[in-house]
């Protein structure tokens, strides 16, 4: 039997779903598998690593493609993980180490999942990616390969919108509603409309701290964005703030990464799909910073970008995930 063909595996490790695709070194896709979430922040490092390793073994097992022998249950030569919750270099290193325990014969590279989207939407993974989903962030990659994430991910996303609105509703800051339990001045910029307040109170939320709801608050993001679109003042202010920060972040990254006058900018995400108005607002905010920008939407799955990044790394051009955070 001929020697097994080297296999590469790309994984899109999300908060609720993870997808793995195996490929030969010439790019032929030969297997696909799905599991639940593998975000280390949400599921824990050990569980996330076990999920990803299980996916990797499944897509690396048995088969024959174009006359090439594929080893049975062989470990891939390279595993490339684009993961949710990988927000710092130390997060990536921790998951790489945990995966090495499961797959000792495999080279493992871990980066933030946004980079897989950038690679899926562009031929070279050069440009800026702006997720409009549970989190809000701005990540860019320069023509010389530098990657940045300079701490922009604190100002937007479904969780921020949902958490702030839920907090206001919980405090009784509802237009036309009853006063809070304790009579305190209610600033007009922190009032939630009655319709949105009803949607918020219909969702059971755990509160991790007196003022911070659990991650489930992200499910309210679309409702808050729709309220902003309808003119509800407080949600509208939150969206305006998000857009201002996007403009500032894009302006900074274009300069830091030498992306020129016409950078490629990818705006994407579940919240963007759920509320197209919000996606338009974020795209407009990016254009304020880069009027000549080429705005694109991904036409391939993020896991395809992860496989392409694996192929890039195999060919000697690995994407980096090492930087000094601002915060």
Polypeptide structure, described:
The protein has 327 residues and is of the alpha/beta class. 39% of the residues lie in helices and 19% in strands. The chain has eleven helices and 14 strands. The strands form four sheets. Strands 3-2-1-6-7 form a five-stranded mixed beta sheet, sandwiched between helices. A five-stranded mixed beta sheet has the order 10-9-8-13-14, sandwiched between helices. A two-stranded antiparallel sheet has the order 4-5. The termini are far apart. Residues 63-72 and 177-189 have low confidence and may be disordered.
Number of distinct helices: 11
Return the structural class: alpha/beta
Percent of sequence in beta strands: 15-25%
Query: CATH homologous superfamily name of the largest domain?
Result: ATPase, nucleotide binding domain
Count of structural domains: 2
Global shape: globular
The description of the largest β-sheet is: 5 strands, mixed
Mean residue pLDDT: 84
Map the helices and strands.
Layout: E1 7-13, E2 17-24, E3 29-36, H1 40-43, H2 45-59, E4 64-65, E5 68-69, E6 78-83, H3 89-102, E7 107-112, H4 114-121, E8 127-131, E9 139-141, E10 147-148, H5 158-170, H6 194-201, E11 207-209, E12 212-213, H7 221-229, H8 233-256, E13 264-268, H9 270-274, H10 276-289, E14 294-296, H11 302-314
Parallel strand pairs: 1-6, 6-7, 8-13, 13-14
Antiparallel strand pairs: 1-2, 2-3, 4-5, 8-9, 9-10, 11-12
Helix pairs in contact: 2-3, 4-11, 5-6, 5-7, 7-8, 8-10
Question: What key phrases describe this protein's structure?
Answer:
14 strands; alpha/beta; 2 domains; five-stranded mixed beta sheet; 11 helices; Nucleotidyltransferase, domain 5; 327 residues
């Amino acid at each position: 039997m001929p020697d097994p063909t080297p296999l590469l595996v790309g994984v899109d490790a999300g908060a609720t779903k993870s997808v793995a695709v195996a490929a030969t070194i010439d790019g032929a896709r030969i297997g696909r598998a799905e599991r639940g979430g593998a975000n280390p922040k949400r599921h824990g490092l050990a569980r996330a690593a076990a999920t990803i390793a299980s996916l990797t073994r499944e897509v690396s097992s048995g088969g024959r493609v174009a006359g090439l022998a594929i080893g049975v249950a062989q470990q891939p030569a390279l595993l490339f993980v684009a993961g949710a919750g990988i927000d710092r270099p130390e997060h990536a290193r921790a998951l790489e180490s945990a995966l090495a325990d499961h797959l000792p014969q495999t080279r493992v590279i871990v980066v933030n999942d946004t980079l897989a989207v950038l690679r899926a939407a562009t031929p070279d993974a050069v440009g800026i990616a702006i997720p409009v989903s549970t989190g809000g962030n701005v990540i860019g990659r320069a023509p010389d390969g530098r990657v940045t994430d300079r701490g922009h991910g604190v100002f937007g996303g479904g969780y921020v919108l949902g958490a702030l609105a839920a907090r206001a509703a919980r405090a009784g800051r509802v237009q036309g509603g009853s006063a809070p339990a304790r009579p305190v001045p209610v600033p007009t910029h922190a009032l939630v409309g009655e319709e949105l307040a009803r949607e918020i109170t219909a969702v059971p939320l755990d509160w991790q701290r007196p003022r911070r709801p659990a991650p489930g608050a992200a499910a309210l993001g679309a409702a808050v964005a729709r309220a902003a679109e309808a003119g509800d003042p407080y949600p509208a202010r939150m969206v305006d703030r998000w857009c201002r920060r996007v403009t500032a972040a894009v302006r900074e990254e274009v300069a830091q990464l030498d992306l020129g006058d016409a950078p490629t900018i990818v705006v994407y995400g579940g919240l963007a799909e759920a509320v197209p108005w919000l996606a338009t607002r974020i795209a407009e905010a990016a254009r304020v910073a880069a009027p000549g920008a080429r705005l694109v939407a991904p036409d391939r799955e993020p896991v395809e970008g992860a496989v392409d990044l694996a192929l890039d790394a195999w060919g000697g051009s690995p994407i980096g995930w090492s930087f000094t955070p601002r915060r």
